[in-house]
């Protein structure tokens, strides 16, 4: 599964990082998130889905690879 963060929607709430720190990195300037991995390891899919569902701005997506 591919993880991505829409930088235009992210407002830096850091909920994703609190849920899944291995999958996200935060900007030191404004706290905006970006994906720390391209592919989510299978053992972390459940926390990736929690981050998607918990994002207040709905800025995170988890998509099947094509």
Automatic annotation (TrEMBL):
Q: Which domain of life is it from?
A: Bacteria
Q: Does the keyword Electron transport apply?
A: yes
Q: Which UniProt keywords apply?
A: 3Fe-4S, Electron transport, Iron, Iron-sulfur, Metal-binding, Transport
Q: Which cofactor does it need?
A: [3Fe-4S] cluster
Name the Pfam families for this protein: Fer4_15 (PF13459)
Q: Does the keyword Lipid metabolism apply?
A: no
The protein depicted here goes by the name: Ferredoxin
Q: Which SUPFAM superfamilies match?
A: 4Fe-4S ferredoxins
- Which PANTHER family is this protein grouped with? FERREDOXIN (PTHR36923)
């Amino acid at each position: 599964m591919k993880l991505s963060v829409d930088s235009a929607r992210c407002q830096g709430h850091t909920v994703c990082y609190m849920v899944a720190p291995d999958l996200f990195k935060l900007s030191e300037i404004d706290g905006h998130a970006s994906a720390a991995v391209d592919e989510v390891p299978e053992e972390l899919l459940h926390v990736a889905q929690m981050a998607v569902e918990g994002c207040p701005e709905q800025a995170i997506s988890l998509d099947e690879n094509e």
